Every structure is written in C-alpha cells, then in structure tokens.
Amino acid sequence: MNRYRYCPCCGSPLEEFPIAGALRLTCADMRCGWVFWDNPVPIVAAIIQCEDRDGAVLLARNAAWEEGKFALVTGFLERHEDPAEAVVREVREETALEALEVALVGLYPFERKNELILAYHVRARGEIVLNEELAEFRLIPPDQLKAWDFGTGLAVRDWLAGRRG
Ligand SMILES: [Zn+2]
C-alpha cells in the first residue's frame, strides 16, 4: 500500500495520531491539520446481461490483469454523477453496449482495495467493442455463471440467488 509521508497541503511530515477511533496519518503542523482519512472509494459495477446474446452475462478481463481473470465491468463515479447514470456510462465507454434497464443489486465493501462496490444489473444491447481498459470478454449463460467469493463476485452471487429464489 502506498502511504503518504508528507502533507500534500503544506509539505510537513506526517505522524500517526489517534482520531475518531483509529490511528491516522496527520499533518505534524497543527495550523494545517490535514488528516489522511483513508475512506473507501465508491465504484460502480455492472452485471451486464446481453439481450441479443440470449441474456448471456458479460465478464471482462482488465488489461492490467493476468490471463484467465475475469470480473464485472467497473468504474469510478464522476463528481455529481448519479451512480445509476455512472454505471450506464461505464458500460457504454468500456463495452459500447447500450443499457436498456438498470437495477441496484446491492452494496459490497471490498476491504482489500478500500472500495465500496455499488453493483447494478444492467440489461443491454448492441455490438460489443471493448475500450483499451479491457483485454477480452466472455459471454456466459446465467445458468453456467459461477460467483467468486470476493469483490464483485459477491454481487454476482446475490443476483444469481435472486434469479433462482
Ligand atoms: Zn499540512
């Protein structure tokens, strides 16, 4: 994990100081008072179901990931963006698919990456064209889809349970 060593506001060294129940990196200059809160970053994730591929679910491999690793399409929110709009935009940017319907699946803390995943089910249509962030994709029929037990896989698990329930 990258750690700040100097205050990004004033350049003073940082020291660990107990604030609000945890040790936090805090600016040594009391007049500055900058604190590294290390709060989780929200990201949107899409369980994309392709209308014109018999409802197959799209999993993608990020260009930075090793071979064989696939997960949901994810992305950051822009300032002032509604999460449901952000997921539609990310699906369009990363896969060129057009979202027809968006439904919240759930919220999933992902501690290892210090993220909060906002997971949506997205019914989509169109021709799949990946952008440079993604290396390859797989289309998996929902009845063959297997959830993984971390990160966006927990949203897949819940979505599958809802379909079968
Ligand atoms: Zn400072």
Briefly summarize what is shown.
The protein is of the alpha+beta class and about 160 residues long. It is about 15% helix and about 40% strand. The chain folds into two domains: about 1-40, no CATH class; about 40-165, Nucleoside Triphosphate Pyrophosphohydrolase (Alpha-Beta Complex), CATH 3.90.79.10.
Helix content: 10-25%
Bound molecules: zinc ion
Please outline the major beta sheet.
Answer: 6 strands, mixed
How large is the radius of gyration? 19 Å
Name the average pLDDT.
95
Name of the level-1 CATH class of the largest domain: Alpha Beta
Unreliable residue stretches: none
The tally of strands reads: 9
Please state the overall shape, judged from the principal axes of the Cα atoms.
elongated
N- to C-terminal distance = 40 Å
Count of separate DSSP helical elements = 2
CATH architecture of the largest domain: Alpha-Beta Complex
CATH topology (fold) name of the largest domain: Nucleoside Triphosphate Pyrophosphohydrolase
Helix/strand structural class: alpha+beta
Report on this model:
The protein is an alpha+beta fold and 165 residues long. It folds into 2 domains: 1-38, no CATH class; 41-164, Nucleoside Triphosphate Pyrophosphohydrolase, CATH 3.90.79.10. It has helices spanning 83-95, 153-164, and strands at residues 14-19, 22-27, 35-36, 41-50, 56-62, 73-76, 98-110, 115-125, 134-140. The model has no long low-confidence stretch (mean pLDDT 95). It binds zinc ion (ZN). Zinc ion binds next to loops.
